[in-house]
């Protein structure tokens, strides 16, 4: 029995893994499943997992040449490997058996099955070339992922620039009609120019910054953000005889969120509701303290509604509903922007709709509970 145990210990292969992920990533279902799998007993493999927060250790991103997080890095045995994306678990499952085989082959003094046309040096060289090819493929995949990430960021920032430009245009029209004075006009122009300056800064950072770096959560009174957004969009709905209703409890707790990003989500969803609600229709904005951990926001309208088979697809990049695409201009990125912002807050966003009966968009925001502010 002692000899068998010793043999099993000798056969065990140690694999060192580094999971680079922030707290909001670790809270997702995919990352929970991945960490649970890696901590299971894998018989001949001794998996040693280390968790690193990129916010506290940003130097690791450069050290391991990571273009996005979360990422899983295999440090040893060589060669180094990097896994990214929502398929990390399936990728690791497929590689586990080979990790053991590669390490055992590296420990042998000669090939397992010598070939008459191939000596040990040739076999070792073939394995080395195969490993180098693997690394090149992974670096190529990482480069493609980075280019796709930059493209998404450019579309998102370009989309965001529309809102302050539209508001500025409406303010100028109101000024020409005598509806607002010089002081109010200058105030609107100043705030909108400041917002465009911030968006321009985001645009310049797209090539070198991760999405999380543009995310700055603080203690936030969400009801005040809602009031500001409704006031800003007043010119959009006030002349159309729309009934705008609000249901915001006075005892609503503060949330832990990025003020600018929350305003971005509310602007997108309310603009869509006003756009697709017919004259004389109604739009309702509600906030609810759903649980001890979440505040739920809902924006409902009585517009044309959304077909059931398209309700999941509308949150993808560059998707616009077929029945409305001819009426509106620009990239269909508004709802994908909302999804990304809500998810980086660890919340969820969804829609409930019936064609001809309107739509209700919901999203959740974490309640402020003395969370640590992100380090800069």
TrEMBL record:
<dbReference type="InterPro" id="IPR036097">
    <property type="entry name" value="HisK_dim/P_sf"/>
</dbReference>
<keyword id="KW-0808">Transferase</keyword>
<keyword id="KW-0418">Kinase</keyword>
<dbReference type="GO" id="GO:0048511">
    <property type="term" value="P:rhythmic process"/>
</dbReference>
<dbReference type="Pfam" id="PF02518">
    <property type="entry name" value="HATPase_c"/>
</dbReference>
<dbReference type="InterPro" id="IPR036890">
    <property type="entry name" value="HATPase_C_sf"/>
</dbReference>
<dbReference type="Pfam" id="PF00512">
    <property type="entry name" value="HisKA"/>
</dbReference>
<dbReference type="InterPro" id="IPR011649">
    <property type="entry name" value="KaiB_domain"/>
</dbReference>
<keyword id="KW-0175">Coiled coil</keyword>
<dbReference type="GO" id="GO:0000155">
    <property type="term" value="F:phosphorelay sensor kinase activity"/>
</dbReference>
<dbReference type="Pfam" id="PF07689">
    <property type="entry name" value="KaiB"/>
</dbReference>
<dbReference type="InterPro" id="IPR004358">
    <property type="entry name" value="Sig_transdc_His_kin-like_C"/>
</dbReference>
<keyword id="KW-0902">Two-component regulatory system</keyword>
<protein>
    <recommendedName>
        <fullName>histidine kinase</fullName>
        <ecNumber>2.7.13.3</ecNumber>
    </recommendedName>
</protein>
<dbReference type="InterPro" id="IPR005467">
    <property type="entry name" value="His_kinase_dom"/>
</dbReference>
<dbReference type="InterPro" id="IPR036249">
    <property type="entry name" value="Thioredoxin-like_sf"/>
</dbReference>
<feature type="coiled-coil region">
    <location>
        <begin position="126"/>
        <end position="153"/>
    </location>
</feature>
<dbReference type="InterPro" id="IPR003661">
    <property type="entry name" value="HisK_dim/P_dom"/>
</dbReference>
<keyword id="KW-0597">Phosphoprotein</keyword>
<feature type="domain" description="Histidine kinase">
    <location>
        <begin position="156"/>
        <end position="369"/>
    </location>
</feature>
<dbReference type="InterPro" id="IPR003594">
    <property type="entry name" value="HATPase_dom"/>
</dbReference>
């Amino acid at each position: 029995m002692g000899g068998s145990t010793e043999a099993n210990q000798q056969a065990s292969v140690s694999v060192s893994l580094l999971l680079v992920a922030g707290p909001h990533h670790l809270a997702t279902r995919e990352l929970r499943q991945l960490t649970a799998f890696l901590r299971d007993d894998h018989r001949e493999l001794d998996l040693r997992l280390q968790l690193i927060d990129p916010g506290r250790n940003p130097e690791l991103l450069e050290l391991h040449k990571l273009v996005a997080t979360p990422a899983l890095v295999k440090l040893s045995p060589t060669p180094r490997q990097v896994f990214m994306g929502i398929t990390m678990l399936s990728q690791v499952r497929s590689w586990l058996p080979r990790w053991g085989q590669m390490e055992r082959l590296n420990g042998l003094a000669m090939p397992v099955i010598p070939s008459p046309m191939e000596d040990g040096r040739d076999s070792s060289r073939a394995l080395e070339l195969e490993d180098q090819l693997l690394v090149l493929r992974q670096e190529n995949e990482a480069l493609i992922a980075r280019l796709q990430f930059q493209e998404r960021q450019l579309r998102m920032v370009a989309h965001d620039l529309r809102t302050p430009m539209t508001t500025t245009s409406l303010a100028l029209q109101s000024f020409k009609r005598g509806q607002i004075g010089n002081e109010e006009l200058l105030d609107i122009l100043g705030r909108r120019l400041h917002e465009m300056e911030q968006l321009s800064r985001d645009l310049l950072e797209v090539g070198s910054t991760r999405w999380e770096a543009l995310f700055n959560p603080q203690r936030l009174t969400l009801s005040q953000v809602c009031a500001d957004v409704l006031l800003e969009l007043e010119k959009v709905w006030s002349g159309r005889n729309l009934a705008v209703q609000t249901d915001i409890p006075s005892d609503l707790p503060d949330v832990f969120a990025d003020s600018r990003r929350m305003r971005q989500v509310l602007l997108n969803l309310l603009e869509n509701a006003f756009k697709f609600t017919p004259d004389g229709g109604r739009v309702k904005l509600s906030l609810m303290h759903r649980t001890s951990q979440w505040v739920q926001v809902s924006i409902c309208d009585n517009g044309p509604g959304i077909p059931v088979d398209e309700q999941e697809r509308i949150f993808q990049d560059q998707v616009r509903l077929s029945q409305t695409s001819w009426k509106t201009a620009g990239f269909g990125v508004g709802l994908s922007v909302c999804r990304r912002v809500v998810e980086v807050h660890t919340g969820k966003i969804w829609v409930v709709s019936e064609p001809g009966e309107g739509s209700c968009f919901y999203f959740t925001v974490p309640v402020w509970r003395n969370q640590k502010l992100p380090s800069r």
